[in-house]
């Protein structure tokens, strides 16, 4: 699943859960049945999971382009630099100004 697919899946999840909650509350209120309300909401949660959890091809329409291994070897990994005492003294001097 690509980044845009994840965003779309999350949006669908929120819409489905809110819709199922409103529908469940409405049906439960009209029928005066708490069990019916919970069953409708549970059905909505299951439907939401079936739609958003699997990695459907629809969610992978914008795949990332990774470097080939041979191309990745040409570009070195960035090195973490250590903070020296001179840079910390510069920070202290700029704070005193």
Automatic annotation (TrEMBL):
It is found in: Endoplasmic reticulum membrane. GO terms for biological process: protein targeting to ER; signal peptide processing. It comes from the Eukaryota. The chain crosses the membrane at residues 12-31, 38-59. The keyword Membrane applies. Residues 70-97 are annotated as: Disordered. GO terms for cellular component: signal peptidase complex. Component of the signal peptidase complex (SPC) which catalyzes the cleavage of N-terminal signal sequences from nascent proteins as they are translocated into the lumen of the endoplasmic reticulum. Dispensable for SPC enzymatic activity. Belongs to the SPCS1 family. This is Signal peptidase complex subunit 1.
